[in-house]
Amino acid sequence: MQEKFLEVFKETLDIEDRELNMSDEFREYEEWDSIANLSVIAMIDEEYEVIIENSQFKKINTLQELWDKIQNEK
Amino acid sequence: MKSNIMADLFSLEGKNILVTGASSGLGKSVAINTSSQGARLIITARNNERLNETLNSLKSYDKHKAICCDLSSKKDLDILVEAIEPLDGIVLNAGAVKLAPIAFINDTSIDELFEVNVQSSIRLIQRLVRKKKLKKGASIVFISSIATQKATIGNAVYNATKGAVNSFVKSLALELAKKQIRANAILPGFVPTGIMSNSEMSKEELDVHLKNYPLGRYGKPEDIAYLAIYLLSDQSSWMTGSLLNLDGGFSLK
Question: Is the CB of A33 less than 8 angstroms away from the CB of B178?
Answer without folding.
Answer: yes
